[in-house]
Amino acid sequence: MTKHLTLLLFIGLAWGQSDLDELALKDNIIGYQNLSIKEKAVKDATSDARKWLLYQPLIISLSGASSLFYFGATGHHPLESMPSMIISILSLYGSYSFFTLIDDNKIKGISPKDFGLYEKVYLKEYKNKKYKNIMISTGAVVLITGAVISHILSNLSFSSNWYLP
Would residue 6 count as lying in a domain? Predict the structure, then answer.
């Protein structure tokens, strides 16, 4: 049995040693160079705005984690104190600052005369895609939260013969 597993491991390693990835990467670079200025701006804006899909889950998890940490450290309910609200607001601001910090507009191979057009199209497209991705992320979080709450409530049984001491 171990002979077969070793053989499969070596076949997998040999199979993974192809140059197809490098060829696909070179193909994308050559295809990118043949695009017009507007097409380059739209493609760059779309790929740069894709990270905003993770914005809503990040702010929810950071805010929840900071509230739980505050509750664990102090024993006070997070909504009853000003420091906890400040911590939550700072986590929201920090996540937005992080996402804007990692905005990387890599402008390469664009002549100075085309830069104005590229920047105008890029910013317009980036704002639209960013807003769309934040809305998609928000909708996904709402749907998942609704499904989880519905599942939890459907598993609870409310009968009329409860015994309350």
Answer: no
Tell me the C-alpha distance between 100 and 138, whole Å.
Answer: 18
Give how many domains the chain has, as a whole number.
1
Cβ–Cβ < 8 Å for 59, 95: yes
- The C-alpha atoms of residue 35 and residue 129 are separated, in whole angstroms, by 20
Verdict on whether the full-model pTM lies above 0.70:
no
Domain assignment present for residue 114? The answer is yes
Residue 25 forms part of a structural domain: no
Tokens of 124: 């317009």
| pLDDT single digits (tens) 123-162 | 899 899 989 998 999 899 899 989 989 988 888 776 666 5
pLDDT digits (tens, 9 = 90+) for 27-62: 455 677 778 888 888 888 888 888 888 888 888 888
Domain that holds residue 115: 36-155
Q: Which residues contact 37 (CB under 8 A, 6 or more apart)?
A: 110, 114, 117, 118, 121
Q: Is 82 part of any domain?
A: yes
**75 backbone φψ class: left, alpha, beta (φ>0; ψ -120 to 50):** left
User: Distance between alpha carbon 43 and the CA centroid of its chain, in Å?
Assistant: 18
